[in-house]
Design goal:
- The strands form two sheets. This protein has a six-stranded antiparallel β-sheet with strand order 3-8-4-5-6-7. A two-stranded antiparallel ribbon has the order 1-2.
- It starts with 11 loop residues before the first helix and ends in a 15-residue tail after the last strand.
- It has helices at 12-16, 40-52, 61-68, 72-84, 100-124, 128-138, 144-153, 168-173, 202-210, 244-248; strands spanning 88-91, 95-98, 178-179, 188-194, 218-225, 230-235, 238-243, 250-254.
- It is an alpha+beta fold.
- The radius of gyration is 19 Å and the shape is globular.
């Protein structure tokens, strides 16, 4: 699940607005604020940088701006503010990375988003794409007390519904997984993670959900063709075909996976 701010078109002026309200701004906030003190726009920037640098890629403000649909100038202004608050740092003249405080803040935002997605999917009945959009609307509004209660209600999930670790500590102790695109014909595997990069494509999310290709689902690769740029598999609802690029954004575990890796929301009495 990669969280996105709800609502289009984007307003570059609104994107630059950093804190709500401005009168509450304190230049020393990075030492003690939580991610809930950040505006929805600032949260989106932190989460986007978290996703784009997650595989070790070098990222610039212009790249983040293109991802978010804003100008380089607007993105640069936001990152200046985030850097001044100790959440983002520059490597060299242009490359960006999250500081320790920035990573903690981004993980906190992601955690709230993931909890809301679990709630909206499992208890409200929304689909994957819908729940992502609605969680983006709500993630900045819940208090720490509500967040803790949701965590308890949902059984303390370690991942979002798409299988992505809820924080850096969890990611370090879970298996890495293998891209589905690398699995050869005839091999069996278990869907493990629909990566944050895959979540950028609402159509892909809807297709995977419709075919029940969700974390914990067993599959068998039937055919894989580099020349045709396609992979065909047999899953819970029969055959499904994916391009190799989308398949590379889905991580699997070969063979049968430990069921304990896949969260299940406790049944309510």
């Amino acid at each position: 699940m990669e969280p996105r701010a709800a609502g289009t078109p984007r307003d570059p002026v609104a994107i630059v607005a950093y804190r709500l309200p401005r009168a509450s701004y304190d230049g020393s906030m990075a030492r003690h604020h939580g991610s809930g003190d950040l505006s929805s726009a600032a949260q989106e920037y932190l989460l986007t940088l978290r996703v784009m640098t997650g595989d070790g890629s070098r990222v610039t403000a212009s790249q983040v701006g293109r991802r978010l649909g804003v100008t380089t100038q607007a993105a640069s202004e936001m990152f200046k503010r985030l850097a001044a608050d100790g959440l983002v740092a520059h490597e060299g003249s242009r490359e960006l990375h999250l500081t320790k405080a920035g990573r903690t803040a981004a993980d906190g935002i992601f955690r709230r988003h993931a909890l809301l997605e679990w709630l909206l999917i499992e208890m409200v009945g929304l689909g994957w794409a819908e729940s992502d959009e609605e969680a983006a609307r709500l993630q900045g509004a819940i208090s720490p007390r509500v967040e803790a209660r949701l965590d308890e209600l949902l059984g303390h999930p370690e991942t979002c519904p798409h299988g992505n670790p809820i924080d850096a500590e969890t990611a370090r102790r879970r298996p890495a997984g293998t891209p589905l695109s690398e699995i050869e014909a005839g091999e069996r595997a278990t869907i493990y993670r629909i990566t944050e990069a895959a979540e950028e494509d609402a159509g892909l999310l809807s297709y995977l959900e419709a075919r029940a290709l969700t974390p914990g689902s067993a599959i068998t690769v039937l055919a894989r063709s580099g020349s045709l740029d396609s992979l065909t598999l047999d899953g819970p609802r029969g055959r499904a075909t994916l391009g190799l690029r989308p398949a590379s954004l889905i991580l699997v575990l070969t063979g049968d996976a430990d069921p304990g890796l896949f969260h299940r929301v406790p049944a309510r009495a």
